[in-house]
Amino acid sequence: MPALARRAMLMTAMFEKVLVCNRGEIARRVIRTCKRLGIETVAIYSEADAEAPHVKDADEAVLVGPAAAKDSYLNVEAILAAIKSTRADAVHPGYGFLSEKSGFARAVAEAGVVFVGPPPEVLDAFGDKMKARHVALSAGTSPVPGTDEPIAIDTAKGIAHAKEVAAKVGYPVVVKAVGGGGGIGMQIVQDEAGIERALKSCSDRGKASFADARVYLERYVAQPRHIEVQVFCDTHGQAFTLGERECSVQRRHQKIIEESPSAAPFFQGEAGEKRRQDLFDAALRVVKKVGYVGAGTCEFIADERGTLFFLEVNARLQVEHPVTEMVTGLDLVELQLRVAWGAKLPDLSTLVRKGHAIEARVYAEDPSKGFIPKPGPIDELSWAWGAGEVQSKTLRVESGVSAGSKITPFYDPMIAKVVSWGETRQQAIAELDRALAGTIIAPATTNLSFVRKVLASEEFVTSRYDTKFAEVLAKRA
């Protein structure tokens, strides 16, 4: 961001107290920026998180319920009571939990408090995969070919239509729960014989997991790359992209390593730059269609030829936002707060992205056993470069735990995000590997060694892999 524009934003008024409606590393991340801006912070916590670092970081902290997320971090009544009792004038939802729940955003607004995120009607527009698909189609951005309405699985006509669409787009196809995520309620179908059974299975899973039995199908992309575009919009009609991130190193449809820019072969050369610009234009068409406000991510999937299809919009800050910050020099949380206050974004259309950044998620899990979570104590935690959250221009760690913490079975088992930056991708890989090599986390079982194995692999170094790569690599001797 140009210095004058940044100074102008800093001179505007700002919130006095922000309640951070989350936990772990993202809560600490938001609190850190608030402190820098002179904003008081309120943490919420469950009984299991009473001694968590994010609680100690904040100026105030409020207990919102027992360990289970449904009784604490998803307890809207308790959170609204915390907002009222602390007299917070804004709520930052982080990611996950209530961050994309339009009902919560409306309740916050009705309480006279600012929700630091897109308005409820925008959250409604991207509330499930089918709604997002309709927005993309109306904006002239192509989703993966498939059904444009939920399939009526309880009628012969509905099943016949599903088979007709599947035959048209070509097998294999994938059946998806409309409200699904993280691979839940999703099944690959190789031929017509498996269609009806998959539709019923995914519908049942969607109903059980998301209280939504609707399903649809689309062409299965056999060797996909997962590419996403960071967007930012304000209340003054401005919309910008801040570059793309590659998130194709995944397990169980969840990301492990993210980087910016993507080094995929189809983004190389003059033709690659045009494809990248077309991708940015497609993302902007989607968010402009619904009057988007704040930070968001348009997710796309690329096939083996580099054809990019729209998937969905994550109407919030992403876990992997630090890689964008490392290559742009921006503080995305600060921009979120400024936009929520009503400030106009500076002109980001000429923003220059510098170098290459890679983020590795360090989890308490066992890659050799299907990446199963491994809750337990963390008695020793030592980063290669010493203590602290932001170390240097080339290395950054964001963690929700400290020595003496415990990874519980109640929440995601992520320990930290380690982010590296280099003038080149090769330098960023080397810097990240050096940092991970010197990291000590004991006695917890972690994916540290596996992440280093990914970084050293020929597939990753040459950027010739797809979203199945990590699970295949984990099975190698």
Automatic annotation (TrEMBL):
Which residues are in the ATP-grasp domain?
134-341
InterPro entries found in the cross-reference section: ATP-grasp, BC-like_N, Biotin_carboxylase_complex, Biotin_carboxylation_dom, Biotin_COase_C, CPAse_ATP-bd, PreATP-grasp_dom_sf, Rudment_hybrid_motif
Give one Pfam family. CPSase_L_D2
Keywords attached to this Swiss-Prot or TrEMBL record, sorted alphabetically, are: ATP-binding, Biotin, Ligase, Nucleotide-binding
Q: Which PROSITE patterns match?
A: ATP_GRASP (PS50975), BC (PS50979), CPSASE_2 (PS00867)
**Lyase found in the keyword field:** no
Q: Name one GO molecular function term.
A: ATP binding
Q: Taking every annotated instance into account, which residue ranges of this chain make up the domain Biotin carboxylation?
A: 14-475
Q: Return the protein name.
A: Methylcrotonyl-CoA carboxylase biotin-containing subunit
